[in-house]
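Continued from yesterday's entry.
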Amino acid sequence: MPSDDSRDELLAKLNLETSQIKWRDLQTYFARGHVVRVSPNLDLLAVAAELAADNKATFEHWMAQDQVGQVTPDQARHWYEEDAQLWAVVIAPWVLVQDRNKHVLH
């Protein structure tokens, strides 16, 4: 298990690499199946850190709760038509995306 310092360093690094991006700019990654949808109820950086740590149990739990998963064709089409801008972070080869547009952030 990583130390708190190394986890904090990873979260700080991921925070610097997180940005907003238009869904249309992610079409190639979506076509390859490399885009992961993250529920707005989860912390995008925490999910990215768990993916980087290869925490399979946590991901399976999130997937079972439909909090993390593939972007469906219907969702992709909606984001494309709306010209949606999403928050994203890359944990190669994955691009994690989160739509925060309809949610109030604390």
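--- second protein ---
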Amino acid sequence: MRPDEFLRKYGFDKDEEERDHSLRHNALEHARHLKRPHAGTPHDWEEWERYRQEHPEEVEDDDDQGEKPRPGR
């Protein structure tokens, strides 16, 4: 008996929607849950700080509230 047959026979094969692992889905999730960038140029960081000040309700709080590491520093 194959594993999928066993699961179907004993009711373990719930037809739940599988999580979408596509690049498009991951990009949309990242855009919906904005957090500070992990890398970037100084210009990227300036834009991020400006956006965070202009739209605080759209940005999730960081887990670590310490010094934010920036490239080149």
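The chain has a mean pLDDT of 77. The first helix runs from residue 3 to 9. Will compare against the first tomorrow.
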